[in-house]
């Protein structure tokens, strides 16, 4: 079947929107702002910052919505973190962290530029076609007000588009019968996923659990039999099918924006995220198969 060029264009656009949203997770500013309100543990800060839009939810809700984190790790911090800082306090701290992070990575001129305002308008227009049903993280963030400053409005829109696609991606992973650890291992095997050292440091799984998941994938014929994390042809087809199904579930905002709008947003987003990458937004060894 010939790939739909509109779906591929939408994926390309998402691929430069998503890292713009994610810059704050790797920024020292997030830890600093949350530590100032009493949340000092790095995992607690991440769980709180990403789930605060849902309110003072419990560990089960966070594990369900985040998918690939070990529940035991989540339960160490949630719901206890809400006794330290309310969701409203966390959201305010996150907003301050995002603002300072973008000012540092992009500079004042870029934040005040016409291009930033244009990107915000385009991304927000795309979100008009997002849907709430079966999309908990998107729906929660969609209830938050749009910030007035263009760079924060753009970040807010990238967050909505990121979580909208992410919620649909989880449905595709379930349909592919990939459990949380198998999803992580198979993504690493594509060469595009987070490196194992980062996954093991942040997701709560042990090396043994990671290796057991790899063995299950080998038993399904999805990974080669050698010690390397390499997809078989069947494994590559499965991962491709997951992404293609995710594309279909996420097509509405980009269809709404239109071909020209998607192309222009991709152009603008590429420039902003390129500048952020050039200024050290992410660790150099974040992506890859190196243990």
Descriptive report:
The chain has 291 residues and is mainly alpha-helical. The chain has one domain (5-278). 69% of the residues lie in helices and 0% in strands.
Let me know the average pLDDT: 97
Q: Tally of extended strands?
A: 0
Tell me about the biggest sheet? Answer: none
What is the overall silhouette? Answer: globular
Radius of gyration: 19 Å
Question: How many independent structural domains?
Answer: 1
Number of helices: 17
End-to-end Cα distance: 36 Å
Which stretches are poorly predicted, pLDDT < 50 over at least 5 residues?
A: none
Structure class: mainly alpha
Strand content: under 5%
- Helix and strand string, N-terminal first? HHHHHHHHHHHHHHHHH
Bin the helical content. 55-70%
Protein name: SalK
SSE layout and pairing:
Blueprint: H1 5-22, H2 28-36, H3 42-51, H4 59-66, H5 71-77, H6 81-84, H7 87-106, H8 108-111, H9 114-127, H10 136-142, H11 150-175, H12 180-189, H13 196-202, H14 207-219, H15 233-249, H16 251-257, H17 259-278
Précis, in short:
With 291 residues, this protein is an all-alpha fold.
Summary keywords:
mainly alpha, globular, 0% strand, 291 residues, HTH_67
């Amino acid at each position: 079947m010939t790939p739909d060029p509109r779906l591929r264009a939408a994926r390309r656009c998402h691929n430069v929107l998503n890292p713009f949203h994610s810059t704050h997770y790797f920024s020292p500013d997030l830890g600093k702002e949350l530590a100032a309100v009493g949340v000092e543990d790095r995992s607690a800060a991440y769980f709180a910052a990403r789930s605060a839009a849902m309110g003072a939810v419990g560990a089960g809700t966070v594990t369900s919505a985040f998918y690939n984190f070990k529940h035991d790790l989540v339960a160490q911090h949630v719901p206890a973190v809400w006794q330290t800082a309310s969701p409203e306090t966390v959201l305010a701290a996150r907003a301050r962290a995002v603002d300072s992070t973008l000012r540092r990575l992009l500079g004042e001129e870029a934040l005040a530029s016409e291009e930033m305002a244009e990107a915000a308008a385009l991304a927000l227009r795309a979100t008009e076609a997002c849907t709430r049903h079966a999309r908990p993280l998107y729906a929660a963030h969609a209830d938050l007000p749009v910030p007035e400053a263009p760079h924060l409005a753009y970040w807010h829109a990238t967050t909505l588009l990121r979580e909208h696609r992410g919620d649909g991606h989880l449905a595709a992973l379930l349909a592919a019968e990939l459990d949380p650890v198998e999803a992580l291992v198979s993504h690493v095997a594509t060469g595009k996923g987070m490196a194992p050292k980062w996954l093991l440091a942040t997701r709560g799984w042990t090396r043994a659990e990671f290796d057991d998941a790899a063995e299950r994938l080998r038993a399904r014929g999805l990974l080669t039999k050698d010690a390397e994390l390499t997809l078989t042809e069947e494994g590559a087809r499965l991962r491709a099918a997951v992404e293609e199904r995710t594309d279909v579930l996420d097509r509405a905002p980009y269809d709404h924006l239109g071909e020209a709008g998607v192309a222009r947003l991709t152009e603008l987003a590429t420039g902003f995220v390129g500048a952020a990458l050039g200024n050290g937004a992410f660790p150099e060894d974040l992506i890859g198969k190196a243990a």
